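Design job #97: recover the sequence.
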């Protein structure tokens, strides 16, 4: 079955950094990301072969220790050969953290993003789009 984009889902918990010294933590996080994506995908789906954009919004409990860019690698690895065939298909990645003390607002958030905003923290919002230029128009 073919995938319909955009694909959005939430992963509860604190993302594991690619820099983590514990291989088991990395593996468990990738499994958690993949499992979280399953609810947004049709059964027996095919991984797509087109160009994609990925958006990651991290909503932590408090100030984030470490670099936000270290979140990306394990999430992309988890979705490789599952939602897309190869990392080379990813043309754009947007990652942002939204720490609780900072004020922010979204214009017309999707239902999944709205759920992330009201969910228990920490939580990671993941969105994949088959239009890498959609936000540039």
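Job complete. Output follows.
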């Amino acid at each position: 079955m073919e995938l319909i984009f955009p694909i959005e889902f939430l992963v509860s918990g604190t993302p594991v950094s690619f820099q983590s010294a514990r291989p088991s933590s990395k593996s468990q996080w990738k499994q958690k990301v993949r499992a979280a994506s399953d609810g947004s995908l049709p059964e027996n789906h095919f991984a797509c072969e087109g160009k994609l954009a990925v958006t990651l919004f991290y909503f932590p409990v408090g100030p984030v220790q470490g670099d936000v860019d270290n979140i990306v690698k394990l999430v992309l690895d988890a979705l490789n050969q599952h939602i897309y065939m190869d990392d080379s298909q990813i043309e754009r990645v947007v990652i942002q953290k939204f720490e609780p003390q900072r004020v922010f607002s979204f214009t017309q958030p999707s239902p999944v993003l709205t759920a992330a905003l009201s969910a228990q923290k920490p939580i990671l919002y993941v969105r994949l789009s088959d239009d890498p230029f959609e936000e540039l128009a």
